[in-house]
Design a protein that fits this description.
mainly beta; Cathepsin D, subunit A, domain 1; six-stranded mixed barrel; 8 helices; 32 strands; 44% strand; globular; disordered N terminus
């Protein structure tokens, strides 16, 4: 499987709050249909940066879409400029970092996935270049929950394939744990997850996140008080994970635990972070074969038996500001990086031979370097008084 264990601080979430001012968004996303007749189609995808990228044909032309159960369907502003789809609504959209923007909602006449035709799909028009990570992934759109709810889906992350079908008699795969789900107005899939003897409810199944488990700080504190994990770490600085790409301040807690279970299926070494909402990302989902039965509102999780270990980090994340300067965006305060004197805001001049202060070097050059999953970072940094320092960081396992 490709690029599974990539840079941890590239986790991002896509939009989940929508408010419309013409046709209400809850009415708009109920529009659309799928071709009639029996459907049972295998579709290949690529697993890039722990995210599912699938080819989607729009009006006969093939594009790269992110498959995201935690967002509604979207097309880029470039695709909209090419086809000029009918605008059916305008409204406000709030991304996962609470940044807001006004967007247009359009009706896409034809979207084809693996030869299966989805007709008259509602999609919001987005600037996918605003978030630097999305920009580097060259995405043209999002295949979201309002489209996915029209049929059933079976994912095999190891084979990098999914199956689309409309079999109403779809039964549980062999050795599967069966978990009913409920949805909100956007067709987000909400499920409970066990943490030791506790149960965390209404967590969103989010294939648009490449991280592990994110929960509100109040729940995190309760679990910590109940001794569900021992070591708690603190990450400070900024994150830039929302659709609109705005860097926002963070001061969040994180831990790793062996006490996570989905319907009795236990998992080892799961990362938990605090956030504004609760979600389950691909760091967890890719450990299973996953089936979504939209007809019955049931998920099926089949354990793969493959060894997994994600608790390895450099302790820092690197961002680029509006002036094109690379800097330490966030740091884990209990990490070796922090002990060596690295602090949020330091300028990063060079990383593993890549000269970040060279005007010809882009954020995508850095992004591609990190996708190669280096085990060591050789950094040249500059502090607030422009003093330079050279440091080497190895991936480390944070102690539990």
């Amino acid at each position: 499987m490709k690029n599974r264990n990539t840079y941890k601080y590239l986790l991002f979430l896509l939009p989940f709050y929508l408010v419309s001012c013409v046709t209400h968004w809850t009415d708009a996303i109920q529009q659309g249909s799928i071709e009639s007749g029996d459907i049972n189609q295998v579709v290949d995808f690529t697993f890039e940066n722990n995210l599912i990228i699938v080819p989607v044909q729009v009006n006969g032309k093939t594009y790269r879409f992110l498959l995201d159960t935690g967002a509604m369907t979207s097309i880029s502003k470039e695709v909209q400029a090419e086809f000029q789809f009918k605008i059916i609504s305008k409204g406000k959209l709030t991304d996962s970092d609470k940044s807001k923007s006004t967007v247009n909602y359009v009706q896409v006449k034809s979207m084809n996935v693996g030869g299966i035709s989805f007709k008259n799909q509602t999609a919001f028009v987005s600037d996918l270049s605003a978030n630097p990570i999305l920009d580097c992934m060259n995405l043209d759109g999002i295949l979201g929950s309002n489209t996915m709810r029209l049929c059933n889906w079976e994912f095999n992350f190891q084979k990098e394939q999914f199956v689309i079908h409309n079999n109403s008699d779809f039964s549980a795969p062999k050795n599967a744990a069966e978990l009913p789900f409920k949805t909100d107005k956007q067709y987000d899939i909400m499920i409970p997850v066990g943490v030791g003897a506790n149960k965390v409810r209404n967590l969103k199944l989010d294939t648009g996140s490449n991280g592990g488990l994110t929960i509100p700080v109040s729940i995190f504190n309760t679990l910590s008080d109940n001794k569900r994990f021992t070591s708690v770490f603190t990450e400070t600085g900024k994150k830039q994970s929302g659709l609109f790409g705005k860097a926002v301040a963070i001061n969040r807690k994180l831990t790793y635990t062996d006490s996570i279970a989905i319907k009795g299926l236990a998992m080892k070494d799961v990362e938990i972070k605090t956030g504004t909402s609760g979600l389950i990302g691909n760091e967890i989902l890719s450990r299973f074969e996953l089936a979504i039965n939209w007809k019955k509102r049931v998920l099926y999780f089949v354990p793969t038996g493959l060894p997994t270990s994600f608790n390895a980090t450099f302790g820092v994340s690197i961002g680029m500001n509006k002036n094109g300067v690379f800097y330490i965006q966030a740091i884990i305060e209990e990490s070796t990086a922090f002990q060596k004197g690295i602090r949020v805001g330091m300028t990063v001049l060079e990383i593993n031979g890549l000269k970040l202060n060279d005007p010809s070097v882009s954020y995508c050059d850095y992004f591609q370097l990190m996708l190669e999953k280096p085990n060591q970072l050789n950094l040249k940094l500059q502090d607030a008084i422009r003093a330079e320092m050279d440091l080497n960081l190895n991936k480390e396992t944070l102690s539990n």
